[in-house]
């Protein structure tokens, strides 16, 4: 799954366009490297998102095409 879509489906970022813009601006890193929106997310990846003064890290536990609000917590773990 594309990185921008994963960020939206997992509800880490609310909108896919915002996720895409954050990737283009270099504010999203995967495994320590700046990642493009087209990066293919895999289980075990560590995603670091820097928006404003907030900087958060998540470990990918599961990749789901569609997720209900209750299922999003199973998709990642905050570090």
Keywords:
2 helices; single chain; 79 residues; Structural Genomics Hypothetical 15.5 Kd Protein In mrcA-pckA Intergenic Region, Chain A; alpha+beta; 5-stranded antiparallel β-sheet; globular
The fraction of residues assigned to DSSP E strands is 25-35%
* Whole-number tally of structural domains: 1
The CATH topology is what?
Structural Genomics Hypothetical 15.5 Kd Protein In mrcA-pckA Intergenic Region, Chain A
The Rg value, from CA coordinates, equals: 11 Å
Query: What is the tally of helical segments?
Result: 2
Lateral arrangement of strands in the main beta sheet: 2-1-3-4-5
Mean of pLDDT: 94
The largest sheet is: 5 strands, antiparallel
| Name given to the CATH architecture | Roll
Structural class by helix and strand composition? alpha+beta
What share of residues is helical? 10-25%
Shape: globular
* Annotation, overall tally of beta strands: 5
Order of helices and strands: HHEEEEE
> End-to-end distance, in Å?
21 Å
Domain RNA-binding S4: 1-62
GO biological process, one term: rescue of stalled ribosome
Keywords: Protein biosynthesis, RNA-binding, rRNA-binding, Stress response, tRNA-binding
Protein name: RQC P-site tRNA stabilizing factor
């Amino acid at each position: 799954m594309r990185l921008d879509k994963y960020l939206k489906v997992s509800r880490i970022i609310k909108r896919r366009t915002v996720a895409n813009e954050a990737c283009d601006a270099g504010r999203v890193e995967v495994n320590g490297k700046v990642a493009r929106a087209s990066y293919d997310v895999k289980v075990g990846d560590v995603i670091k998102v820097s928006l404003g003064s907030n900087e958060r890290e998540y470990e990918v536990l599961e990749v789901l095409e569609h997720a209900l609000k209750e299922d999003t917590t199973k998709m990642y773990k905050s570090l």
